[in-house]
Amino acid sequence: MTRARLTARIAVFAALIYVLSWATSYIPNLNLVFFLVFSSGFLWGASAGMLVGAMGMGLWTFFNPYGPAPIPVIIAQIVGASLGGVAGQLFHALQLHTGNKFMQTIWLVLGSIVCTVSFFLPVSLVDAWLFQPFWPRFIAGISWSLISFVSNAIIFSLLFHVTLRLYRSEKSRLSSV
């Protein structure tokens, strides 16, 4: 794949994160960020997935309807979101998308958990550190993320077939060139 083509795909996925975050902004902790970053890591590698996560979350955290977060939280959100690209790359490298549907679903749920923890752990730590008292704030933040655990497991399981379709399409396009 050419650098220009990959750059365009990264930009489109980052823009999708921003736009879809607006669309789901009134439903607490339900969004497609994690899935899009994971998918981009699966499709184009960890670096591309991390760029998608950093750019998409950067846009969202600066320009969202609730106003920007404090700078340390912004950094934690960007780093946490970008880690999903690594999870997607590992999922692809370990061939966890092959095999029967049941095992694929189990791996996808585990992937969604990894992505969710990778985001909410640093964000909750930084938030609790900034706004104190640390332990009650941290526990409340982690508890609030339970919505994302459930919704991400469902989103990953229901939408991954779209990622596989895109992967197969890109693979066949590249092999025919």
Verbal overview:
The chain is mainly alpha-helical and 177 residues long. It has one domain (3-175): Arp2/3 complex 21 kDa subunit ARPC3 (Orthogonal Bundle). Helices cover 82% and strands 0% of the residues. It has helices at 3-23, 33-44, 46-62, 71-93, 101-131, 134-144, 146-175. The protein is globular, with a radius of gyration of 16 Å. The termini are close together. The model has no long low-confidence stretch (mean pLDDT 93).
- Overall number of domains: 1
Low-confidence stretches: none
Largest sheet: none
Shape: globular
Distance from first to last alpha carbon: 10 Å
Give me the CATH architecture, please: Orthogonal Bundle
Q: What's this, in brief?
A:
The protein is mainly alpha-helical and 177 residues long. The chain has helices at residues 3-23, 33-44, 46-62, 71-93, 101-131, 134-144, 146-175.
Question: What are the SSEs and their pairings?
Answer:
Elements: H1 3-23, H2 33-44, H3 46-62, H4 71-93, H5 101-131, H6 134-144, H7 146-175
